[in-house]
Amino acid sequence: MHDSGKSFSRMTGYALLLAIAAFSFSGCSDTEGGGESISIDSVTPATASAGDIVTIEGSGFSSDLAKNVVSFSAVGVSNSTASRNTIPVEATSSSLRVEVPEGSFTGGVNVRSPFPIKSGPFDITPPGIPSNSLGFTVRLLRGDVAKIYYADSDYDMPVSTGETDEEYILILFDSASPPEGGMTFNYFVDNDTPCSSALASDGPDAEMDSGPESARIDPLLLAGAGDVTRSFERKKREEVFDLLRGGVIDINSDDSRQLSSQSAALEPQAREFFVFSNFSGSTIDPDDFTLVTADLKYEGTHTLLYVDQNTHFSCIDDSEAEALGVKFEQDIYPKNTSTFGSESDINHDGKVVILLTPIVNELTPPGGASTGYIAGFFMPGDLLPTYVPTGASNAMEIYYSMVPDPNGIYGNIYDKERALEVIRGVIAHEFQHMIMFNYRVLIFGNGYNGTYMAELWVDEGLAHIAEDVNNHDESNIRRADLFLNDPGNVTLIHGGDDLEGRGASFLFFRYLGDRFGEGIFRDIVQTKKTGTDNISYVTGIDFKELFADWAATMYFESRGGTPVDPKYSYTSIDMAADFEPLRVRPSNICGSPYTGDVKSYGPEFLLMEFTGPDVYDINISSALFGSMNATLIRIQ
């Protein structure tokens, strides 16, 4: 229950603290800070672009640069999330010279000067008292990007234009959690600007709407996606998470670990494995596993590759199987471990097992491969033998793969050459999952705690990066094409296991790698933080800011134009050449409102057109409980 008396006391005490602090600081020197007496009289020039230097005249400033924070706010100083803050480059008690920060919108300018000393025995620093606010106009040049974030569902955004007709891309995304019963937020964009005939949406820019209507996907590129795979992956994840909610068991205890009896230095040529074989069953129930015998086809320093003895000779021969083992040993293993980290070794043999078996083929119903199929998987239960009963765990580092099936012996036809290429990509993909599980459950969770398990979109996104660093990008590109066809209808962080979502996560993590270096992938894996908190932590940047930067990058890379800041670029992929074009909607909102729908953390790209010099007030609103964010790119 809310205690109004206590709330009033706290508020009164805080106001009193500010009043006492202001009185105490009224005689402070110039280097100590201005306290409540800080004020601004003028900003020169009153119109500037990001990177320009402006001079702020006033009183009560500090000559200590770090004690002056200049806020460029799009909607007024009360909304801190709508502000771009910066430290002056020069300062006296009456004058500040400051660079207009990248991302600023037209709005107001004020100065905040923090209190100079600690207050009271608890070492609390009260917040700085802001100065008055003066209007300031930000002129966006071609290639400039302005960004603004809100915690509200309705706001006005001022945009200042010049003498000539101008075009902008407005990128909207809703950062609120998905609404109950769905994933979509309705939004409205409105202003009273008349359209220039030269910029009418049925003119030369009408093709901006042309995204891929129905990207044609080779069925063999659908491995790891589609309804079949989504339900399987979710089942594995949910069952293992439920398993880890149990009591504390020391998985590192020799008495509690179910070790394989076949971990001798010299590996046997034939070996038995439990393989999950009932798609509708449980991934931790021995009744849903089949015992198979497989022959060793390749042994390396880190690798054991086996092929099920029941595999038809037309599916894969010894040389093809050996080539897969060599590929993992010499390429995939070193690339994945250097990019993400190390796998576990619960049976102390130093090896990762790859098992090719038609049991995996049979998990996909006949005819189901046209909409997605199970090509291979890693089973967490294999690394949790303490929890999983005998018959449902092989107690070793192992992942399972389909076999090529050019004759459809096991239900679906998989061309041998194409299937072998897919299997190589799947091995890289699943090995990343194994590495992630090692850090998040076996190391950070001590083998029994699922608190640090990576969110699905992060785990899958990095698994697609594993495909990328191993030069298996065809499926990544085709999935990304589906996302680019309608990006506002794809959530980045609340899905992660459909084709479009995987395409989005690949593009997002590829952007992080290009911007921060590929060491960022190892950092993401090897931290206890999860989800968006993890990304913000390893980059040092608010996730909404990164999301907006990524969205702007996709526009520049797909549709052209030169960004002022090089951070809005990919260095490892060529979106214009290799991907379908990003869908940009010719919103034609000049003179009439535009409405649409977006999923949470799904970017919507709208073409906006203005004619003549003015400051235009754009109203953006979303459904109740929404939190719409806006990014504006000047393109003409």
Outline the structure in words.
Helix content is 27%, strand content 22%. It has twelve helices and 24 strands. The chain has helices at 4-24, 226-243, 318-339, 358-361, 416-443, 456-469, 474-485, 499-516, 519-525, 531-539, 543-559, 575-578, and strands at 39-44, 47-48, 53-59, 69-73, 83-86, 90-91, 95-99, 107-113, 129-130, 134-138, 145-148, 154-161, 166-174, 184-190, 270-276, 289-299, 303-308, 352-356, 376-378, 398-401, 594-599, 604-610, 614-622, 628-634. Strands 2, 4, 5, 8, 9 and 10 form a six-stranded mixed sheet that branches. It has a six-stranded mixed sheet with strand order 15-16-17-18-20-19. A four-stranded antiparallel sheet has the order 1-3-7-6, with no helix packed on it. Strand 16 (289-299) and strand 17 (303-308) form a beta hairpin. Helix 5 (416-443) crosses helix 6 (456-469), helix 6 crosses helix 8 (499-516) and helix 7 crosses helix 8 (499-516). It is elongated, with a radius of gyration of 29 Å.
Structure characteristics:
636 residues, alpha+beta, Immunoglobulin-like, Jelly Rolls, 4 domains
Q: State the share of residues found in helices, binned by percent.
A: 25-40%
Chain-averaged pLDDT: 82
Give the DSSP E fraction (strand runs of 2 or more residues): 15-25%
Question: How many β-strand runs?
Answer: 24
Number of helices: 12
Most strands sheet: 6 strands, mixed
First-last Cα distance: 55 Å
What would the principal axes of the Cα set say about the shape?
elongated
Q: Whole-number radius of gyration?
A: 29 Å
Structural class: alpha+beta
Q: Could you list the spans in which at least 5 consecutive residues all have pLDDT below 50?
A: 1-35, 116-122, 196-207, 209-217, 247-265
How many domains comprise the coordinates? Answer: 4
